[in-house]
């Protein structure tokens, strides 16, 4: 699996975890403090997903899928299973303490190490994008030179066609 795909999969996992936490906030809405804490955790997970998606976007500008990662697919698959099990176990009416135990299982699944590893591997693409922005290397919105070349090629193709 290339870095790009690993980033996308981990971003999806972060979103799934955020949705789980938001669901727990809704289930425990009768406790303002508990619902607020679940909501804050959901926000944190969504923020993590957006960071991963931003790295994917930076890679897209560079046109690079990043390095091939051997160990990450297995780690992500293990984390996916933990999240799916937690979502199943949460059901429709999980009590607060068992819900916290679900979160402890998710958090213990080496999530931080996977996330940190992907951030470090993706950092060079973000730095490269920022350098491109600083040096105005990115294509401009108006690319008249390419339009002229396109027009010339279209005209030339008409004269060659029998």
Polypeptide structure, described:
The relative contact order is 0.14. It is elongated, with a radius of gyration of 23 Å. The protein has helices spanning 3-27, 32-62, 72-90, 96-107, 111-134, 144-160. By secondary structure, the chain is mainly alpha-helical. It has one domain: Ferritin (Up-down Bundle). The model has no long low-confidence stretch (mean pLDDT 89). It contains six helices and no strands.
| Number of DSSP helical runs | 6
Detail the poorly predicted runs: none
Query: Which class best fits the helix and strand makeup?
Result: mainly alpha
- The amount of helix comes to over 70%
Radius of gyration: 23 Å
- Provide the number of structural domains: 1
Number of strands: 0
Q: Beta fraction of the residues?
A: under 5%
Order of helices and strands: HHHHHH
CATH architecture: Up-down Bundle
Mean pLDDT: 89
End-to-end Cα distance: 48 Å
Q: Describe the biggest sheet?
A: none
Q: Indicate the overall shape.
A: elongated
What's the CATH topology name? Answer: Ferritin
What CATH first level would be assigned? Mainly Alpha
